[in-house]
Write a structure and sequence with these properties.
The chain is α/β, with parallel strands linked by helices. The protein is built from 18 helices and 10 strands. The protein has 2 domains: about 290 residues, ABC transporter type 1, transmembrane domain (ABC transporter transmembrane region fold); about 240 residues, Rossmann fold, CATH 3.40.50. About 65% of the residues lie in helices and about 10% in strands. The structure holds adenosine-5'-triphosphate (ATP). Keywords: ATP-binding, Membrane, Nucleotide-binding, Transmembrane, Transmembrane helix.
Length: about 550
């Protein structure tokens, strides 16, 4: 309706010039003005309603897309994070989603709107003068033949510039993350140089894209101009010979500009849309990607487990790599404390990822309480297995939120109890706002040991039956290590514990020590047994003391 009202204006002008003016019919003129004013008001109201509908149509799918992407990220799990740089995932959320939104925000509504306008205006144009309307055909054809070349180039370069922007952002992200190292090594100049090169590279693509976009605009303007020349040439001749009235000629010229603009703009839209759809390919592939680890069809949920773990002939390789874990066997009874030791790169951390089912072994099986991990409901399994990593991550939020985040609405008492158990309560109370102090990136910085104790407090809230510690204390100094160790010991009391240990001096109290060598369980026993055996463990220990 809005389109129809907009399009009727030239016909009103024609009627006014050809009928109302010669007859000097001022009453008619008044009525005409009233109708125009009414139509104008209606079109304003309708246009506002259109904007409202468009906004709803724009915002709702944007939320749906975001939600679907976040769910997909969760579904893909750790292997996706390990395979893809954080910067490229960020760009997926920003740029690719933007492209997708472009399709339904700009292209679909514009195509519908312009399509209707085109239909109405073309029929009015033909109705005004069919013969003169024929000039549209050569004008449109010449644009149709030349225009898309520039369209495509402009869009391809837009795509190139986008991919270069992603790379530049990625580099910027790396640069922020490595700030300390860059400073320490006096490499800031080197880094700035690399960043500037990357951004210049991006800018070059931008310039080329702008040039093609400008050329496209020029082709369009030339086409419209040539058509207008032809229209004046033939039109004025027809007015002189009386075949066309002055009003009809003016209406025609107004309609002509509309039609040719609409036609060229629709060519632009469809070409751009085709290329934009290609641009969203990465997003499409991301949404179609299959997770390495899938939820079983009939998942088993256990309210409580004993914490018995067994590895049976486990063989695992990261995608596209040689096996890291080979024929690994291990029995861990409930409450046992097992340390995994061995040279760097032999697969200790990988074993812990298999326990949390962040990856599935290609061969063999891992069982918890006699049930294969693959059969467990994923969330339920992770409720029973708790992790403490080398460095704890804290959200830019309050201490309270950082302790509570992995639990459903714990009470204040539970949070404080957990913090006390993790030897974190005292230092939390000394913070400016206690549990309400904002920590993490945008708040107060805590020491490595304090962060670890907050991470341990999280686990006290969940009380997992299997505890996996991946070098949880290796990044700490002696004092912090002592406090974190106390917290861990309290947590370990009722758990089966698997620890990846770097320093062999820390594993003396463990029930079993497993030497992981080239992905195999090469040697196993208590500290004393392994020393007495004089094998791999003994050599590792000797190597370590020689080092010291
Ligand atoms: N996500 C991954 N994708 C591909 N290869 C990986 C991945 N993670 C680790 N690796 C490789 O697997 C091997 C074993 O790594 P892992 O971290 O399990 O060893 P580790 O014994 O824990 O070593 P460290 O004591 O140094 O931590 C290494 O060669 C490593 O490069």
């Amino acid at each position: 309706m809005v389109s129809a009202i907009e399009m009727s204006i030239p016909k009103f002008i024609q009627y006014f010039i050809d009928d109302v003016l010669p007859a000097r019919d001022y009453e008619q003129f008044g009525i005409l003005l009233l109708i125009l004013a009414a139509l104008f008001v209606i079109s304003i109201i309708l246009a506002a309603a259109r904007k409202r509908v468009e906004r709803i149509l724009q915002e709702k799918p944007a939320m749906d897309v975001l939600r679907a992407m976040l769910e997909q990220l969760r579904y893909l799990g750790l292997s996706y994070y390990e395979k893809n740089a954080a910067g490229s995932t960020l760009s997926l959320f920003k740029e690719e989603v933007n492209q997708l939104q472009h399709i339904y925000r700009r292209y679909f509504p514009s195509l519908i709107h312009q399509g209707i306008m085109l239909l109405i205006s073309t029929s009015l144009l033909v109705q005004t003068n069919a013969y003169l309307s024929l000039i549209i055909i050569p004008c449109f054809l010449s644009y149709y033949l030349v225009g898309p070349y520039f369209e495509k180039k402009a869009t391809i370069w837009a795509r190139e510039s986008q991919s270069r922007r992603t790379q530049a952002n990625q580099q910027l992200y790396n640069s922020f993350s490595a700030f300390l190292e860059l400073r320490a090594f006096g490499a800031q100049k080197w880094d700035t140089q690399r960043l500037i090169e990357q951004f210049t590279f991006m800018q070059r693509a931008n310039n080329i894209q702008n040039w093609f976009a400008y050329s496209r605009g020029t082709v369009r303007r030339v086409t419209i101009g040539l058509g207008a020349l032809a229209m004046f040439w033939f039109g004025i001749g027809m007015v002189q010979s009386g075949e066309l009235t002055v009003g009809a000629f003016i209406a025609f010229s107004l309609l002509y500009t509309r039609v040719i603009r609409l036609l060229t703009s629709m060519v632009t839209l469809t070409t751009e849309q085709r290329l934009t759809i290609i641009q969203t390919e990465k997003l499409y592939l991301f949404m179609k990607e299959q997770a390495e680890v899938k939820q079983p069809t009939a998942p088993i949920k256990l309210h409580e487990v004993k914490g018995e773990l067994s590895f049976y002939n486990v063989t695992f390789a990261y995608p596209g790599r040689d096996p890291i874990i080979e024929q690994f066997n291990l029995e861990v009874t409930s409450g046992m404390k097992v340390a995994l030791v061995g040279k760097s790169g032999n697969g200790k951390s990988t074993l812990t990822k298999l326990i949390g089912r962040f990856y599935d072994p290609q061969d063999g099986e891992i069982y918890l309480d006699g049930i294969a991990l693959r059969q467990f409901d994923l969330t339920n399994l992770r409720d029973h297995v708790g992790f403490v990593f080398q460095e704890a991550f804290l959200y830019g939020d309050t201490v309270r939120a950082n302790i509570a985040f992995a639990c459903d609405d714990p009470t204040e008492e539970q949070i404080v109890e957990a913090a006390k158990a993790a030897y974190a309560h005292d230092f939390i109370m000394e913070l400016p706002q206690g549990y309400d102090t904002v920590v993490g990136e945008r708040g107060i910085k805590l020491s490595g040991g304090q962060k670890q104790r907050i991470a341990i407090a999280r686990l006290f809230l969940r009380m997992p039956k299997v505890l996996v510690l991946d070098e949880a204390t290796s990044a700490l100094d002696n004092v912090s290590e002592y406090e974190v160790k106390k917290a861990l010991e309290a947590l370990m009391e009722n758990c089966t514990t698997i620890t990846v240990a770097h320093r062999l001096s820390t594993v003396q109290d463990y029930d079993q020590i497993v030497v992981v060598d080239q992905g195999r369980n090469a040697e196993q026993g208590t500290y004393e047994e392994l020393i007495a055996r004089g094998g791999l463990f003994y050599q590792l220990l000797k190597g370590e003391s020689e080092h010291e």
